[in-house]
Write a structure and sequence with these properties.
Helix content: 55-70%
Distance between the termini: 122 Å
Number of helices: 5
Number of domains: 2
Shape: elongated
Number of strands: 7
Strand content: 5-15%
Order of helices and strands: HEEEEEEEHHHH
Length: 315
């Protein structure tokens, strides 16, 4: 009798445990939950999504995936049907995408919150989707970049070969013989400038007195013509016209002489400055030649040395 009671108790315990297990499974699957709002969307790849996967709205649990299947009307995309809780405000501009919380977690459908003023999506409506870049896609992109990287390396190698050729040509150009020739040419130019400066100054000093004398002569001629004009006022009209034209010519010549004198006075300092600038340029060219001979790579990397103003002596 006791054994029958024990068997009956064990049987009842097994039935209760099985009922609890079935109820738990059904509760987890959402059978006992209130009916949700259905929506669907399309993806190029399901990304391992399976029915029963979680649906999140703004990061919080909002529903479940019902079915994952190939679109009957377009075999190039996957149709995902899902439901969300009735209190979830899915908007018409909400974007659905496949996401994952961690590297070891299952994929789920993430629904964006949309914009504040957008209307609610009607039940059974399609939501826009955004494809998620997976690890496989990243690997494909890296594989596609490999030929580009190889071509870049080939081009870089060609540029290095050309750079070596250019460096060799510069070294050949700046050999001892050419360097001596450039130095001699610069020395001759410097000597010519040094000899020509005093001559220019002497010529300028000689021109100025001549201009002053010519100006005085013009004034005297003008006075003489004035007297002549007075004498011929009552004579023939032709003579009067000739005297007037001659007087105007002398005025014009006097003005030209004055302009020439002013130009010479104003440019005396400029001539000196030009000579100094040419001399400074000669020194800079000589220094550039020495720098290129000692360090040809300065053409590529540049030199951050302090600039010198024209006329300043090198330190």
């Amino acid at each position: 009798m006791t054994s029958k009671r024990e068997e009956a108790a064990v049987g009842i315990f097994v039935l209760i445990a099985a009922a609890l297990l079935i109820g738990t499974v059904l509760a987890v699957s959402g059978v006992f939950s209130a009916g949700g709002v259905s929506h669907y969307t399309y993806f190029k790849s399901a990304g391992g999504l399976v029915p029963g996967a979680m649906v999140r709205y703004g990061g919080m649990n909002a529903g479940k995936v019902k079915t994952v299947r190939v679109d009957p009307n377009d075999s190039t995309r996957i149709e995902v049907d899902f439901t969300v809780q009735r209190d979830i405000p899915v908007k018409t501009d909400s974007i659905a995408k496949i996401a994952v919380i961690g590297a070891l977690s299952d994929n789920f459908v993430e629904i964006g919150t949309g914009t504040k003023d957008a209307a609610l999506a009607p039940p059974g409506s399609e939501l826009k989707s955004a494809e998620t870049v997976g690890i496989g896609d990243i690997a494909d992109m890296i594989g596609n970049l490999a030929p580009v990287a190889n071509q870049v390396l080939v081009n870089l190698n060609q540029r290095l070969v050309e750079l070596q050729t250019t460096t060799a040509r510069i070294n050949d150009l700046l050999n001892d013989k050419n360097r001596a020739n450039v130095g001699a040419s610069l020395g001759n130019l410097n000597a010519m400038l040094a000899d020509g400066r005093p001559k220019v100054q002497m010529a300028t000093a000689r021109i100025l007195p001549m201009l002053d004398d010519l100006k005085a002569t013009m004034k005297q001629a003008n006075a003489v013509l004035s007297h002549v004009d007075a004498l011929v006022v009552e004579n023939h009209e032709d003579i009067r016209t000739i005297v007037i034209e001659l007087k105007e010519t002398l005025f014009t010549a006097s003005a030209l002489m004055e302009q020439l004198k002013n130009t010479t006075d104003n440019n005396a300092d400029n001539i000196d400055q030009i000579i100094l600038n040419i001399r400074a340029t000669t020194e800079n060219v000589r220094e550039l030649t020495d720098s290129l001979k000692s360090n040809p790579s300065i053409i590529i990397r540049g030199n951050n040395g302090k600039d010198r103003t024209p006329g300043e002596q090198p330190k």
